[in-house]
Design goal:
Cytochrome Bc1 Complex, Chain D, domain 2, 90 residues, mainly alpha, 4 helices
Length: 90
């Protein structure tokens, strides 16, 4: 079963390499491969101070010019992307 509406589920069947690949083709065109913005309106993710739930909310519902992903990505992938952002700060 898929849950695209959010929830507290952990990273179930999504592995890190799949999350990284998804970031590469869904996010990096604006936020850059290393989390440093490549367009004016996209924030640098290396300086992100939001918690996982806040990031999931933005990824799911979009913000400003960022389109919502809740109808495109499974909740596990959204959570994985929210967690992946932490690795960009290192």
């Amino acid at each position: 079963t898929s849950n695209k509406n959010g929830g507290a589920e952990g990273l179930k069947s999504i592995d890190f390499e799949e999350v990284k690949a998804t970031y590469g083709y869904k996010c990096s065109m604006c936020h850059g491969r290393e989390g440093v913005s490549v367009i004016r309106n996209a924030p640098d993710l290396v300086y992100n101070q939001q918690n996982i739930e806040e990031r999931m909310e933005i990824i799911s519902n979009g913000l400003n010019t960022m389109p919502p992903q809740k109808d495109v990505l499974e909740i596990e992938m959204i959570r994985g992307l929210a967690m992946y952002i932490d690795s960009l700060a290192n």
